[in-house]
Amino acid sequence: MILSLNPALQFTAFERLKERLVIALGKELGAGHLFLLGMISKACTLSIVYPLIRMKVRMQSDNAIPDMRSSFDQIMDAEGFQGLYKGWFSQIGKSTMSTALLLTTKEEIERNLERFIKRLT
To answer: Structural domain boundaries of the chain?
Structure first.
Protein backbone atom coordinates (compact mmCIF):
# COMPACT_ATOMS: atom_id res chain seq x y z
CA MET A 1 0.00 0.00 0.00
CA ILE A 2 2.89 2.34 0.71
CA LEU A 3 4.08 1.98 -2.87
CA SER A 4 0.85 3.48 -4.14
CA LEU A 5 2.44 6.74 -3.04
CA ASN A 6 4.70 6.60 -6.08
CA PRO A 7 2.18 7.75 -8.72
CA ALA A 8 0.47 10.13 -6.29
CA LEU A 9 3.76 11.85 -5.46
CA GLN A 10 4.83 11.83 -9.09
CA PHE A 11 1.68 13.52 -10.40
CA THR A 12 1.58 15.97 -7.48
CA ALA A 13 5.21 16.95 -8.02
CA PHE A 14 4.62 17.36 -11.75
CA GLU A 15 1.54 19.55 -11.28
CA ARG A 16 3.19 21.76 -8.64
CA LEU A 17 6.33 22.23 -10.70
CA LYS A 18 4.22 22.98 -13.77
CA GLU A 19 2.15 25.59 -11.90
CA ARG A 20 5.27 27.34 -10.62
CA LEU A 21 6.95 27.36 -14.01
CA VAL A 22 3.84 28.73 -15.74
CA ILE A 23 3.74 31.55 -13.19
CA ALA A 24 7.48 32.22 -13.51
CA LEU A 25 7.44 32.25 -17.32
CA GLY A 26 4.01 33.83 -17.64
CA LYS A 27 3.04 31.61 -20.56
CA GLU A 28 1.87 28.14 -21.54
CA LEU A 29 4.62 25.52 -21.38
CA GLY A 30 5.90 23.84 -24.48
CA ALA A 31 6.58 20.15 -24.93
CA GLY A 32 10.24 20.58 -24.01
CA HIS A 33 9.40 22.14 -20.66
CA LEU A 34 6.79 19.49 -19.96
CA PHE A 35 9.22 16.70 -20.82
CA LEU A 36 11.86 18.15 -18.50
CA LEU A 37 9.33 18.57 -15.69
CA GLY A 38 8.25 14.97 -16.18
CA MET A 39 11.83 13.79 -15.82
CA ILE A 40 12.44 15.92 -12.73
CA SER A 41 9.22 14.87 -11.02
CA LYS A 42 9.93 11.17 -11.66
CA ALA A 43 13.53 11.47 -10.47
CA CYS A 44 12.44 13.18 -7.26
CA THR A 45 9.66 10.70 -6.60
CA LEU A 46 11.83 7.69 -7.32
CA SER A 47 14.52 9.05 -5.00
CA ILE A 48 12.00 9.12 -2.17
CA VAL A 49 10.24 5.82 -2.88
CA TYR A 50 13.13 3.68 -4.15
CA PRO A 51 14.22 2.30 -0.75
CA LEU A 52 10.67 1.00 -0.25
CA ILE A 53 10.74 -0.62 -3.67
CA ARG A 54 14.09 -2.22 -2.86
CA MET A 55 12.81 -3.57 0.46
CA LYS A 56 9.66 -4.97 -1.20
CA VAL A 57 11.68 -6.72 -3.90
CA ARG A 58 13.99 -8.15 -1.25
CA MET A 59 11.00 -9.47 0.70
CA GLN A 60 9.47 -11.06 -2.40
CA SER A 61 12.71 -12.73 -3.44
CA ASP A 62 13.43 -14.17 0.01
CA ASN A 63 10.48 -15.81 1.75
CA ALA A 64 12.42 -15.79 5.02
CA ILE A 65 11.99 -12.00 5.30
CA PRO A 66 8.61 -11.47 6.97
CA ASP A 67 8.17 -7.70 6.78
CA MET A 68 9.54 -4.35 5.56
CA ARG A 69 11.37 -3.67 8.84
CA SER A 70 13.25 -6.97 8.61
CA SER A 71 14.06 -6.27 4.98
CA PHE A 72 15.35 -2.82 5.91
CA ASP A 73 17.51 -4.22 8.72
CA GLN A 74 18.93 -6.92 6.46
CA ILE A 75 19.86 -4.44 3.73
CA MET A 76 21.40 -2.01 6.20
CA ASP A 77 23.42 -4.77 7.91
CA ALA A 78 24.70 -6.27 4.67
CA GLU A 79 25.14 -3.20 2.46
CA GLY A 80 24.69 -0.06 4.54
CA PHE A 81 22.71 2.98 3.46
CA GLN A 82 23.94 2.63 -0.15
CA GLY A 83 22.20 -0.74 -0.28
CA LEU A 84 18.83 0.99 -0.12
CA TYR A 85 19.65 2.67 -3.43
CA LYS A 86 21.32 -0.29 -5.16
CA GLY A 87 20.08 -0.29 -8.75
CA TRP A 88 18.64 3.23 -8.42
CA PHE A 89 20.74 4.73 -11.20
CA SER A 90 19.64 2.22 -13.83
CA GLN A 91 16.02 2.56 -12.70
CA ILE A 92 16.24 6.37 -13.03
CA GLY A 93 17.51 5.95 -16.58
CA LYS A 94 14.63 3.69 -17.55
CA SER A 95 11.73 5.30 -15.77
CA THR A 96 12.39 9.04 -16.17
CA MET A 97 12.28 8.93 -19.95
CA SER A 98 9.09 6.90 -20.15
CA THR A 99 7.38 8.98 -17.47
CA ALA A 100 8.44 12.23 -19.12
CA LEU A 101 7.04 11.02 -22.44
CA LEU A 102 3.82 9.88 -20.78
CA LEU A 103 3.27 13.18 -18.95
CA THR A 104 4.15 15.29 -22.00
CA THR A 105 1.74 13.31 -24.15
CA LYS A 106 -0.97 13.55 -21.49
CA GLU A 107 -0.57 17.33 -21.26
CA GLU A 108 -0.60 17.81 -25.03
CA ILE A 109 -3.71 15.64 -25.47
CA GLU A 110 -5.43 17.49 -22.63
CA ARG A 111 -4.50 20.85 -24.12
CA ASN A 112 -5.74 19.89 -27.59
CA LEU A 113 -9.01 18.51 -26.21
CA GLU A 114 -9.62 21.76 -24.32
CA ARG A 115 -9.04 23.76 -27.51
CA PHE A 116 -11.34 21.48 -29.47
CA ILE A 117 -14.11 21.76 -26.87
CA LYS A 118 -13.79 25.55 -26.80
CA ARG A 119 -14.25 25.64 -30.57
CA LEU A 120 -17.43 23.61 -30.27
CA THR A 121 -18.98 25.97 -27.74
So the answer is: 2-120
